[in-house]
Design a protein that fits this description.
The chain has 311 residues and is mainly α. The protein has 14 helices and four strands. The chain has helices at residues 2-7, 13-28, 37-62, 70-88, 90-115, 119-138, 148-156, 164-182, 184-194, 196-201, 206-232, 243-253, 265-284, 289-307, and strands at residues 143-144, 158-159, 162-163, 234-235. It is globular. It is a multi-pass membrane protein. Keywords: Cell membrane, Membrane, Transmembrane, Transmembrane helix. The chain crosses the membrane at residues 12-30, 42-61, 68-86, 92-111, 123-147, 159-180, 209-229, 265-287.
């Protein structure tokens, strides 16, 4: 088993890289508390929202599309949830958050599959629209959430020593893995991204597949926003800003192809954790923010380059 693992080392580079980085940080930053259980759990807490969005992004990329609006949709969701909770309570807030994601996803999907605008442009425009709406309805101010029950369930609670955010990540990761690998929908997603024309001739409604993955992506972004809001007990348009880059990087690091046809949810989750691990380790090293950006970018480029198959 080990020999087969290392024989396909390019395919498994994300797992090897994660282990190497963890060992290096554990050896060099032990005196700075890297291995402290609280620090390791904080990495999970800081990574969970990225992982939730990256799981859905795996489906989008596997279908040959892309969603650049996830960070802005997460921010908009935090605001709609907080405002709805203030008016009608936590149940209304949850409905409002999910409705936000569904509405944005359906609009993105309609523009992409029916109007024919490439998803890159559709979601790039939606990034600005979602952020603008969030700023407008909140008047750029934070909206507090005064519901302990909501805050506990959506990001702020613990089951014993285990953060609720970890449970969200594990449950959604398991569902995503099963759907992508064990269901007809997952196979149709991969077939659509692997060759849209061939998939269409084999009877797959490729437009419907692309519509659905964009709805899934925006819904997951809205859920990530709900987790942000619960953890920080407020809705703010800035939450999720720039997350789209980390989300896409996590999926690609995990082995999902930017060109479609190949994806792995487990690899995506490890990719998200790897980004969180790198961020945490570089901060503990005391590097300036500019140096952190350089080091993080170099590590991600190296990992992706090593994972590419040579032709």
């Amino acid at each position: 088993m080990a020999s087969a693992f290392f024989a396909n080392w390019r395919q498994n580079i994300i797992y090897i890289g994660f282990l190497v980085i963890f060992v290096v940080f554990a050896a060099t930053l032990a005196d700075k508390g890297f291995l402290n259980p609280n620090n390791l759990l904080n990495i999970v807490r800081q990574t969970a929202m990225i992982a939730v969005m990256a799981i859905a992004m795996t489906f989008v990329l596997s279908a040959g599309e892309i969603d650049l609006s996830v960070g802005a949709v997460a921010g908009l969701s935090t605001v709609t949830v907080a405002m709805a909770i203030a008016v009608g309570g936590p149940v209304v807030g949850v409905i409002a958050g999910l409705a936000t994601g569904l509405a944005v996803g359906m609009f993105n999907g309609w523009l992409t599959t029916r109007v024919g605008i490439p998803s890159f442009l559709t979601t790039l425009a939606m990034m600005g629209i979602a952020k603008g709406v969030a700023m407008w309805i909140s008047a750029t101010a934070a909206v507090p959430i005064l519901s302990p029950g909501y805050s506990w369930l959506f990001g702020g609670g613990n089951v014993g020593p285990v953060p609720v955010l970890l449970l969200w990540m594990v449950i959604l990761g398991a569902i995503g893995h099963i759907v992508l690998r064990r269901t007809g929908f997952g196979r149709r997603v991969l077939a659509t991204g692997g060759g849209e024309t061939a998939a269409r001739y084999s009877g797959i409604d490729t437009k419907a597949i692309k519509f659905k993955v964009l709805v899934i992506s925006s819904s997951a972004a809205a859920l990530a926003g709900m987790l942000y809001a619960g953890r920080l007990q407020s809705g703010r348009f800035q939450l999720g800003e720039g997350d789209e880059l980390s989300v896409i990087a996590a999926a690609v690091l995990g082995g999902t192809s930017l060109f479609g046809g190949r994806g792995t949810v487990i690899g995506t989750i490890v990719g998200a954790l790897m980004i969180g691990l790198i961020n945490n380790g570089l901060i503990l090293m005391g590097l300036e923010f500019s140096q952190q950006l350089i080091a993080r970018g170099a590590i991600i480029i190296l990992a992706v380059a090593l994972s590419q198959k040579r032709t």
